[in-house]
Structures are given as structure tokens and as C-alpha cells.
Design a protein that fits this description.
The chain is of the alpha/beta class. About 30% of the residues lie in helices and about 15% in strands. It has a single domain, classed as Rossmann fold, CATH 3.40.50.1820. The longest helix has 14 residues.
Length: about 200
């Protein structure tokens, strides 16, 4: 994407990724929203196209509420699409697999190699239980898109995130479907980049 002339910034959320050395059980959704808001403010970024993947849909919604004047567009990538007052816990009650929680963290039991990078790491449970608080309705005027990933061979309507795709459709957003697992940034990076570039051209 940078070869096409776009500046790409990847904020790291406190306690996750390369900042997992800062992990503690008091980290909540508001901390992660502040991580991204401060990246935008301290880097003096404007005309931002904000992409949120999975749980990141909670984060970018909160960011757009706080700094809507810095955001050009929002892209929800197989992401939660929350309303004011909703938490991840409320939105994922239909998930068919149980979340394993220990000492204030959700454990990524699906990770087979604990030394591989990148990889999922224990996720602070308070980021899932804290409700999103939005007070600025101007965020709703930001152009937005929803990109649904569907496992090859499966029907899109059976996908857990399909209900959020439908919500986006009802709002008149741009919609895309990509045949990939939940992490196209890992399994289909080139195809994902092309879709993002397609959105940028709109």
C-alpha cells in the first residue's frame, strides 16, 4: 500500500503484540481507544482511514467518536460493529466456542506455537466487559465499509460476523466479501491490500 503512495501506521494496543510486556488485568477498552487516539494526535495524522479487525471494531468506533474530525473513513474488517453501551461480552454471546479466562485474561488456547511471531497473546478480559461509550453522533457521518471474511466452502450467512455485515448493509455502507479465514492479513495479505486500495479509490 505504501508503494501506491499511502502512509501506513499500525498502532500497537497496550498489552498486545509487541507491547505484551505491558499486559495487566486492569487494561480495558478505553485504554485501547486511547492508544489509537494518541497515535493520531501525537503523529498529527489527518484524513485517516481507520481499519479495525475483529475486536478492533470496538476500538475504531470509540476512536471515531473522539476524533471524528481526523477520520476520513472507517473500514470494519470481519469486525464487531457496536452501538453505544454495548460490550464485546454482549455482542459475542452467540459464539459457539467457550472463552478460557484465567487471572483476568482470555487465553488464546488455539495458539499452537507460543514462540511464533506474530501470534495471539492473552487478552485482558476488561476489554471485553467494559461497555463502549459514544457521545458524539458526528461519527455516524463518517463514510464506512464492512469487509466480511468467509471460510472457503462455507455459506456467508452462517458466519458469526455476518450479522454485523447485515447491520452495515442496512446503514448503506460499502460491502465486500473475501474468501479467507478470520485473519486475511496473514493468509491473504495481497488480496486484502487490493481490497483496501479499491476502497481508497472510491
Amino acid at each position: 500500500m505504501e508503494k501506491e503512495g499511502h502512509k501506513v501506521v499500525r498502532p500497537a494496543l497496550t498489552g498486545l503484540g509487541e507491547r505484551n510486556h505491558l499486559a495487566n488485568s486492569n487494561i480495558d477498552l478505553s485504554v485501547h481507544i486511547t492508544d489509537v487516539v494518541n497515535t493520531i494526535l501525537w503523529e498529527d495524522l489527518h484524513d485517516v482511514i481507520l481499519v479495525g479487525h475483529s475486536y478492533g471494531g470496538m476500538v475504531i468506533t470509540g476512536v471515531a467518536d473522539q476524533v471524528h474530525n481526523r477520520i476520513r473513513a472507517l473500514i470494519y474488517l470481519d469486525a464487531l460493529l457496536p452501538e453505544d453501551g454495548e460490550s464485546v461480552e454482549k455482542l459475542v454471546t452467540e459464539v459457539s466456542f467457550p472463552l478460557v479466562v484465567s487471572n483476568g485474561f482470555i487465553l488464546p488456547v488455539w495458539v499452537k506455537d507460543p514462540n511464533a511471531t506474530p501470534r495471539d497473546v492473552p487478552h485482558p478480559i476488561k476489554t471485553f466487559t467494559q461497555p463502549l461509550r459514544c457521545t458524539n453522533s458526528l461519527r455516524n457521518s463518517i463514510p464506512s465499509a464492512y469487509l466480511l471474511t468467509v471460510d472457503p466452502g462455507k455459506d456467508s450467512s452462517a458466519d458469526f460476523f455476518y450479522k454485523f455485515y447485515e447491520h452495515a448493509k442496512q446503514r448503506g455502507w460499502l460491502l465486500y466479501i473475501i474468501k479467507a479465514d478470520h485473519n486475511p492479513q496473514r493468509c491473504k495479505p495481497q488480496e486484502l491490500a487490493q481490497l483496501l486500495l479499491k476502497f481508497l479509490a472510491v
